[in-house]
Amino acid sequence: MSTAAEELRAYLDEVTPALHRAWPDNRSFAARLAWQRALHLGGWAAPHWPVEDGGRGLGILDRLACDAELARAGAPDIAGVFGIKNVGPTISRFGTPEQRASLPRILSTEEIWCQGFSEPDAGSDLASLRTRAEPDGDGFRINGQKVWTSDGMRATHCMLLVRTDPGARPHQGISVLLVPLDTPGIERRPLRQITGDYEFAELFFTDVHVPADSLLGPLNEGWRVTMTTLGHERAGVVELANSLQRDVKKAVAGFPDGVADPVLRQELARRYVEARTVGLLGRDVLRALSAGEQPGPAQSVIKLGWSLTTQRLGETLLEAAGPAAIAAGDGPEVHRFLRGRASTIAAGTTEVMKNILAERVLGLPKG
Amino acid sequence: MSAVSDRNDEHDELRKVVRAFLEHASPSSEVRRLAETDEGYDPEVWRRLADELGLVGLIVPERFGGAGAGAAELAVVMAEMGRTLLCAPYLSSAVLAPAALLESGDETACAEFLPDIADGSVIATLAVAEGNSDIRDLDAVWTTARADGDRHLLFGTKERVTDGYAAGLLLTVARTEKGLSLFAVDPEAVERRPLPALDPTRKLARVHFDRTPARLIGAEGAAEGAVARVLDLGAVALAAEQAGGAERCLELSVEYAKTREQFGRPIGAFQAIKHKCAELLYEVESAKAAAQDAARLWSAAAAASEQGLAASVARAYCSETYVHAAAETIQIHGGIGYTWEHDAHLYLRRAKSSALLLGSTSWHLERVAADIGLVPTA
Amino acid sequence: MASATVQDAGTSPARQAHWSVRLAEFLDAHAGRPPRDKTARLAWARAFHADLEEAHLAAPGWPAEAGGMGLDLGDQIAYHQQMTAARAPRHPCGLSFIVAPTLIRHGTPEQKERYLRPLLRADEFWCQGFSEPGAGSDLTSLTTRAERVGDAYVVNGQKLWTTMAHLADWMFALIRTGPAGPGGAGISYLLISMKSEGITVRPLKDISGGTHFSEVYFDDVRVPVGNLVGEEGGGWAIARTSLGHERATAFLSDEFRYRRVVSELHRLAKTSGAADDPVVRQDLARIEASVRVLASNSRRALDAVLEGRDPGPAASVNRLVRAEFDQRLHEVALRVVGPDAVLGQREPTAPEGGRWTYGYLMSRSSTIGAGTAEIQRNTIAEKVLGLPSWRKEA
Predict the structure, then answer these.
(1) Cα–Cα distance between B49 and B42 in angstroms, integer?
(2) Superkingdom of this entry's organism (chain C) (predicted)?
(3) Tell me, what's the pLDDT at B28?
């Protein structure tokens, strides 16, 4: 185990008992906030961030070791997940000194960020983005609509993709704006999803004025600016692979007496096989990265494997839970089953992912 | 999670050497020629595999004349053989038979047989399955052995014995009062018959024992656990071969999809074909990862329970992936893929047949379920 | 003409019996197991169908004037059930029933007179010359062409995937006689004697090792203009002629066969003990459900036809569903057979003569032949569901 992970473990041993006592159901947002604050106090909210931004400058191996420690301790997802995963690193890379002032506030939960990417007509294909920002005095005037904004109701700020040059080619003429969500002209509506939860919001922008220093990075280069954070995706897919393995292990542990029906049992064993295999792909990527090599196709297929297996796992577990599960209201199995539908849609549908794999990895011609 | 270092330059080098050799030693024309023969291998290629490449004795310890390599290297070699559908008794004589001798702990037998197996001069195999039962169902072994002076006499029939017709040394399991035991038999003393098979590129035979003299290998009644481990190692090797075959199927499909035109464009431009290929890419990458992981655990002498689980995970995944990949290869090629002249059906035959040998998918899933605690203990 | 014979025969007391009674008698008289030998089996099936035609018990759905029985749909279904139950041999040349409707609808009186009876009797075999090396799924890109020289067409080119070409006496072919255009313009429907000079048949082995189809080469092959069916350049439109409810009833006869095959698989599962494994049992139950769904789907389409309504989407998806069912059926069958499924057909101890393993290999073609599953899905999406065609984007 890495020294960083050892240090984190020691810290977690100290703080987790009280956190678990105070927040027995640690799925709630309040619990996640408390956990993040506790981690932040120890300097563990974003250990992979550079030291000057308030992190510990951990490399990918240490970072994944720390993720494993957090999972072991039963930590929930961090509250400001988009701020820490994407927005912070992007601001760190492109931000002015003033913009960088957000970084400590992201760590401390003072600022919770969401990302305004998807639009009603730009789901899988961000190139057809329509929300526009026109020059307006010393700043921009924003008009348009975002949808499927995760954490959109809870967030205090939004990293917004807008079209600033309507005449440019689809992936050009896009810029990134940093927008406080209490700016006049922004209306938020919760979007209720099939599980009954409200994880997402629709954001409406009507003549919203923001100052010129809201612009992050160069004008009309928003595509490149947001894509840079995808450099962190590699750690992301490894963590995705690990989390799937943990999920299935946990699910299997939910049957301490085994499963009497051999058909269900073998189906569950199949999920275990799939999850373990995706986990192995993650390990391959990690090994390549730690050896300073380019990870092969394994990296590209993990998300697809995760999507398919997560969805099937939801189906298998609902079936294995027996008929009582469907009468248990919003029980965990029903919730997982319904939520599984999102895994083949969110962050790129499986259809788009397959096209990308076919074209970029296998070299098949574009349609 | 542990830091891992199983992919290394030596493996890449080994892969390159084996691939280069097989590309000229096992082209489709040779596979088709050998598929028509009863023995199913080319003695000259076998000799070169043993002498020039040292692959036949790959897992045989150096003190018995082998290379002393582990399952990780074996997996690299099997994957390459799977890619070209090499017709050779490799699984039998370089994996199952030497592993059975080694697992028996019978040093005398090892010293006597392994050097000849390792240098390729004797082809050996392991005969286990009987009737129409799964090879992993050792309770279904009813071949019996009766002591007769310092030897035994065997009675029974073994089915689907890989390379059983070409073998010069036959290892087999039979039941005595003390339980399952391993025996060595001179194939000249038995009645054996090549079986026309779904997969003509891997030879199967029926072997009939009737008062057949046999020599006990290892302790009497001690074979059950040993044979299970041998079959597990065989599963690891076969999974690697399946992953290699599946990978080749994907390559063939992608190459074809790029060049074949219908409706004025390459068929690979159609999403229906693209999505098939992308799904296969995910499955093939996963199959390779599962097979390599199992091999790594066997090389690293991990706990036996971990090794068994990894072997079954690999087999369950690779069996289904290979059959799927081969079937889709035919589909993507359309009519051409359905012809005898195209290699696609050879892959489908190898894939389906391999899935049924050395433990069905259902058997392996059940083992996985047991190992992760899903089988009720009642 | 055949129809005249039917009416003349009407006076004979034996012929006045209800067709189903006559069919039962016929089937009784022709009962027996098919010979194991392939050639003998073919001869046996030919003789059966010749006798059937002789007894005026062939072609239940064809009009009487074309030599058929002119039965209504309900009777046709009963007919097929009776035939399947008796395990009567299928007509040895299924392709004949693809050319026949085109001949009946669009053929000249001379053409009908010349071809239909030998076709029904299985005296003459037909093969279909549609696919070409560059025109598999995309038939409008045909390049085999015919030029009119005097009173004949001179044909040059190549056909591929021609099923039964090595046994066929005739080919019905789509041949280019004019420039390509929308809707298959410039394509004509020709009847070509396979004994013509300039035809070379090169059999192709399929994945089971059998010879079910061939490449056919045309080198200045002369085809009399009298062998043109329909208008010159109008071949595309008449190539898919179907006769009344023939397609629906053909489905049914297939389903009766599937029903039988599934029941045979159940029997094997019970005797071999495979049905004791709950995983196999549930797979079998799924297959059972599928075969029943197939049957109800066809029944639904038929009911619609009987009531004079459009059979709707059920009929369109049936072929795709059946093709994929065929593959699933054989995948499950190999699990039922167990480890011995690795044995080939030539192995005498292979369970049930290796038929399931053979069927497994053969079933791979069911999603390729006569329109791949992918093409069928496109067609269903566009024609049934009204989704936009990708062709327009191109």
Answers:
(1) 11
(2) Bacteria
(3) 96
Amino acid at C9: A
Nearest CA in chain B to A353: B278
* Least Cα separation, residue A257 to chain B (angstroms): 6
- Each domain of chain C, given as residue ranges in start order, spans 2-92, 126-239, 246-393
Residue at a domain's end among B88, B118, B148:
B118
Confirm whether A233 is a catalytic residue: yes
Q: Which of C276, C279, C378 to mutate to test the interface with A (most CBs of A within 10 A)?
A: C279
Range of the domain at B30: 9-118
Assess whether B263 and B363 both reside in one domain: yes
Tell me which CATH code domain C126-239 carries. 2.40.110.10
Residues B212, B141 share a domain: yes
Number of domains in chain B: 3
Q: Cβ of C278 under 8 Å from any chain A Cβ?
A: yes
Q: Which CATH number characterizes residue B161's domain? A: 2.40.110.10
Total-model pTM: 0.85
Which own/partner pairs from B271-276 qualify as long-range (CB within 8 Å, at least 24 positions apart)? B271/A351, B271/A354, B271/A355, B271/A367, B272/C374, B272/C377, B272/C378, B273/A364, B273/B332, B273/C374, B274/A354, B274/A355, B274/A358, B274/A359, B274/A364, B274/A367, B275/A351, B275/A354, B275/A355, B275/A358, B276/B328, B276/B331, B276/B332
Chain B adjacent subunits, 3+ CB pairs under 8 A: A, C
CB spacing of B274 vs A283 below 8 angstroms: no
Q: Does C342 touch chain B (CB under 8 A)?
A: yes
Length of chain B: 378
CATH number of C246-393: 1.20.140.10
Do the Cβ atoms of B277 and A362 come within 8 Å?
A: yes
- Considering only CB atoms, which chain B residues are within 8 Å of C209? 340
- Would the pLDDT of C164 be above 70? yes
For residue C1, pLDDT beyond 50: no
Chain A adjacent subunits, 3+ CB pairs under 8 A: B, C
Antiparallel, parallel or unpaired: β B151-162 and B169-176: unpaired
Q: Identify the weakest region by mean pLDDT among A273-277, B271-275, C255-259.
A: C255-259
Interface test with A, best of B1, B252, B283 (most A CBs within 10 A): B1
Bridge-based pairing of strands B204-217 and C126-129 is unpaired
Please report which confidence band the pLDDT of residue B2 belongs to, taking 50, 70 and 90 as the band edges.
very low
Residues of C in contact with A263 (CB under 8 A): 278-279, 282
Q: Which of C124, C132, C246, C255 is catalytic?
A: C246
Which residue is closest to B200 within chain C, CA to CA? C344
Domains parsed from chain A with CATH numbers: 3-108 (1.10.540.10), 113-219 (2.40.110.10), 228-361 (1.20.140.10)
| Mean local confidence (pLDDT), C119-136 | 89
> How close B202 gets to chain C, by Cα (Å)?
10
With beta carbons under 8 A apart, name residues in chain B contacting C207: 330, 338-340, 344-345, 348
C-alpha separations of C170 from A347, C118, C236, C394 in Å: 58, 11, 19, 38
Each residue of A122-151: pLDDT tens digit?
A: 766 677 889 999 999 999 999 999 998 999
| B173 and B96 in a common domain | no
Which residue type is seen at A152? Answer: G
Look at the block and give the residue holding tokens 């044979």.
Answer: B227
Domain-embedded: residue B175: yes
- Cα A238 to Cα A60: distance, rounded to the nearest angstrom: 10
**Cα-Cα-Cα-Cα dihedral of A81, A84, A85, A91, to 10°?**
140
Residue B376: phi and psi, rounded to 5, are: -60, 140
Contact state of B327 with C364 under an 8 Å Cβ cutoff: yes
Residues of A in contact with C279 (CB under 8 A): 262-263, 266
| CB-based contacts of B20, cutoff 8 Å, min separation 6 | none
A365 in contact with C at a CB cutoff of 8 Å?
no
